[in-house]
Design goal:
mainly alpha, 6 helices, globular, 180 residues, single chain
Length: 180
């Protein structure tokens, strides 16, 4: 399947507005240190990572009140790499997850026929536009069927209330409250 973004609008809000300037700066610095990319490229990829997480968070919030509203969306390899790095910057990632989704947004490596066929990306792009933030075509166009995950990755069923099992009495049910 070929994905084209013929009707890409050059309008939309700047994704840097989604998080504090200092937090955006940390994510940009982390990406640049690892990949040695230009500052302009790095800001764009980190911005698209934020747009993706904003869309994923909106879907998760809606699915809590209506499980039928859940739809799996997927990042492209460059956006996923920014996500991997942001997961390591916990002082940014935890509050960002809470802001976007009202809970921690887990990352589950997946490679399946939905991704390989391009169907998952075709479903993702409209959800990105629904956020109202600018979608940069270079990070989404031509990426159908790709993933950062090797072929042996397996889908852990996307969204379920308890995908990996229970922690029993060790942890409370529901979202975790973090006090500072």
């Amino acid at each position: 399947m070929t994905i084209t973004m013929e009707a890409v609008s050059q309008t939309g809000r700047d994704p840097r507005e989604l998080i504090p300037t200092w937090a955006f700066g940390l994510l940009v610095e982390d990406f640049r240190k690892k990949h040695h990319t230009s500052h302009d490229y790095t800001e764009r990829v980190v911005g698209q990572h934020l747009v993706f997480l904003k869309a994923a968070g909106r879907i998760r919030r809606n699915a809590r009140s209506d499980p039928a509203a859940y739809v799996r969306i997927v990042p492209t390899p460059p956006v996923d790499e920014a996500w991997h790095l942001s997961l390591q910057r916990t002082e940014v990632y935890l509050p960002m997850s809470w802001l976007f989704a009202g809970s921690f947004m887990h990352h589950r490596p997946v490679m399946d026929d939905d991704i390989r066929s391009g169907t998952a990306l075709a479903r993702t792009i409209p959800k990105l536009h629904e956020t109202g933030y600018f979608v940069v075509p270079e990070f989404w166009e031509g990426e159908a069927g790709s993933s950062c995950c090797p072929p042996e990755c397996n889908d852990q069923d996307g969204f379920t209330s308890n995908p990996l099992g229970s922690w029993g009495d060790l942890l409370p049910d529901g979202p975790f409250a973090i006090s500072f």
